[in-house]
Amino acid sequence: MFSQQQAARYDQLAHTGYGSVQNAQQWDSQKLQQQATLKTTQAALVAAERQIDVLKAQRTTDEANLAQANAQLDQARLNLSYTIVTAAQPGRVVNLGGAVGQYATAGTNLSMFVPDDLWVTANFKESKLDQMRPGQKTTLVIDAYPERVFHGHVASVQPGSGTAFSLLPAENATGNYVKIVQRVPVKLVIDDLPTDVSLGPGMSVDPTVRVDPKASLFEQARARL
């Protein structure tokens, strides 16, 4: 704007004879240069505005690609989690039937799990439960270690016989009833289980529960010595 005013002014002075033609030509040249610069800047502005639209489109595409990549990452993590079988408590894997690289379908039995928290299920006669209570001391003789005696306590007494909770409980409603002494599962927990023994499900145990907290005659005699 300033160069146009100056060019018009010096052109007027040159026509009237009060200004030099050289100054008028100089300002005309500056006017043309600035007009060319303006057109170049305007063209660059239009190109930049078009570039903004291109960048916006690229950003939309990149955001879609990022969302797809995140979905693939989540799916990969989920697939990886399927390769890890976790247990709710520490223990040992036994009877392993799977191998590395083997594919397993849903419901396939690959192994069995034996927890480190072991206990003994003693099936006592119902006639022996009159004075049996949780917390009473017990001694255990395991057939695998006949020379050793393990000590524990009664954890719980099942409120019912073993046959009552079986898959096919016995029904004695036919009238041919024969009274049979039932067996009731009693949970016995071993106290301070030694680390040099290996115990597992199915082993035979001979348990004895001390229902009388009083000291025996032998214990009384040994206490007097």
Characteristic key phrases:
225 residues; alpha+beta; Elongation Factor Tu (Ef-tu), domain 3; 2 domains; five-stranded antiparallel β-sheet; two-stranded antiparallel ribbon; 37% helix; 20% strand; elongated
Task: Give me the secondary-structure topology.
Layout: H1 2-16, H2 21-81, E1 91-94, E2 112-115, E3 120-125, E4 137-142, E5 145-157, E6 183-190, E7 205-209, H3 217-224
Antiparallel strand pairs: 1-2, 3-6, 4-5, 4-7, 5-6
What is the CA–CA distance across the termini? 124 Å
CATH architecture of the largest domain: Beta Barrel
The averaged pLDDT comes out at: 80
Give the count of structural domains. 2
Specify the helix fraction band.
25-40%
Instruction: Enter the CATH topology name of the largest domain.
Output: Elongation Factor Tu (Ef-tu), domain 3
**Tally of DSSP helical segments:** 3
**Strand and helix order:** HHEEEEEEEH
Could you give me the name of the CATH homologous superfamily of the largest domain? Efflux pump adaptor protein, beta barrel domain
Strand composition percent: 15-25%
Q: How do the strands of the widest beta sheet line up side by side?
A: 3-6-5-4-7
Nearest-angstrom radius of gyration?
48 Å
Number of beta strands: 7
Would you state the CATH class of the largest domain?
Answer: Mainly Beta
Helix/strand structural class = alpha+beta
